[in-house]
Amino acid sequence: MEYFLGIDYPTLWYLVIGLLFSGYAILEGFDFGAGAWHLFFQKDLSRRIAINAIAPVWDANQVWLVIGGGALFAGFPVMYATMLSAMYVPFMLFLMFNVLRAAAIKFRSAEEMLWWRKTWDIVYSVSSIMIAFLLGVVLGNILQGFPLGENHSYKGGVFFSFLNPYAIMTGFTTLALFMTQGAIYLLLKTEGRLHARLTFLLRRGMIFFIITFGIMTLYTLVFIPKVTENFRANPIYFIVPILSFFAVANVPRLVSKKRYMLALVFSSITMMFLLMLVAIQLYPTLLISTIDPKYNVTIYNAASSQKSLGIMLTIVVIGTPLLAGYFYFLYSTFNGKVKLDDTSY
Predict the structure, then answer these.
(1) What CA–CA distance (Å, rounded) separates 294 from 266?
(2) What is the predicted pLDDT for the residue at 334?
(3) 297/76 Cα distance (integer angstroms)
(4) Where on the phi/psi map is residue 192: left (φ > 0), alpha (ψ -120 to 50), or beta?
(5) How confident is residue 225, by pLDDT bands cut at 50, 70 and 90?
(6) Is the distance from CB of 112 to CB of 65 less than 8 angstroms?
(7) Looking at residues 159-174, what average pLDDT do you find?
(8) Residue 105 has what pLDDT?
């Protein structure tokens, strides 16, 4: 087993993938959240402003998904194959709604007809909602486990087995968190009556998140106690849920003071802490077998060769500053309130 700074390569790659998907959740979270609110805006001008708030960055944010998926395939190919087998339907729906969402952003303002714009508005908003919900559904299934047998083969149903109560609750919680993130981002990018409308909607979004997160947490503690085993074995990990609680509580305080950038930062920190909770709950398991723990997919039986992981970690060290520099340039270039012009969607 190869080590770097006292950490074995599979664990390091586990952390890398966690960081990549955290970046995706934070950046695409406000994209999907903004889209989820879209039909709550009544005027065409407000909807155009909301779309153009994410227009310069939404496609760039997809980079995190591409890199994260590639890193998962390269580092843990067994987990990649098993999860796609188990979650084939939600992943296909996820891709379909991504295509529809992109088409809606591009085509929505291409014609002046009212029916045309309303149709694409519906497609855009429903697609954003479904993408956020499906991501939560997949996460809920990962936390709950899959019926995995020998050679990590999936033994469950194909079509609707992923729609279990816990996965649905996780889906609604993810949607609520993304909607909160999206409303805060839009507050940064808008002004006037739309800004006032978003202030009202954000309060509803935060209430929605607190309720769904509370229900999901209670359900987890009562019916899925195995996910807390790592916390009971290592009490120091309880600092993560405590910090996540303070991060969540700080968001409404900052919003009330109109410090929207800091509110967005703490909303993003909340996402990061919640994903850290998932990582801690699972480690070193990637996919839990509900048939027998000996069929669990772990970071060790699912990892690529040590040489492959070493090479890829070297690429990560080189590529991370480039990726960070690119996104810093992107967001600093398009900083400020949305101003519509002839090139706007």
Answers:
(1) 39
(2) 85
(3) 10
(4) left
(5) low
(6) no
(7) 89
(8) 92
The 3-class secondary structure across the chain, one letter per residue, is: CCEECCEEHHHHHHHHHHHHHHHHHHHHHHHHHHHHCHHHCCCHHHHHHHHHHHCCCHHHHHHHHHHHHHHHHHHCHHHHHHHHHHCHHHHHHHHHHHHHHHHHHHHCCCCCCHHHHHHHHHHHHHHHHHHHHHHHHHHHHHHHCECECHHHCECCCCCCCCCCHHHHHHHHHHHHHHHHHHHHHHHHHCCHHHHHHHHHHHHHHHHHHHHHHHHHHHHHHHHCHHHHHHHHHCHHHHHHHHHHHHHHHHHHHHHHCCCHHHHHHHHHHHHHHHHHHHHHHHCCEEECECCCHHHCEECCCCCCCHHHHHHHHHHHHHHHHHHHHHHHHHHHHCCCCCCCCCCCC
Q: Is the pLDDT confidence value at 4 over 70?
A: no
What does pTM read for this prediction? 0.93
Q: Which of 142, 202, 207 minimizes the C-alpha distance to 172?
A: 207
Return the C-alpha torsion angle 186, 192, 193, 197, nearest 10: 30
Residue 295 CA to residue 239 CA, distance in Å, equals 31
Q: How far is CA 49 from the centre of its chain?
A: 24
Residue 342 phi/psi, 5-degree rounding, is -65, -20
pLDDT at site 238: 82
User: Would you state the structure tokens that stand for residue 258, as one six-digit string?
Assistant: 């109109």
Cα 288 to chain centroid distance, Å, stands at 21
Alpha carbon distance 59, 85 (integer Å): 27
Give the tens place of pLDDT for each residue, 39-78.
Answer: 999 888 999 999 999 988 888 888 888 888 899 999 999 9
Residue type present at position 199: T
CA-to-CA separations, 223 to 160, 171, 195, 217, in angstroms, rounded: 21, 17, 41, 10
Token pair of 50 as six digits: 């909301």
Share of the chain above pLDDT 90, in %: 42
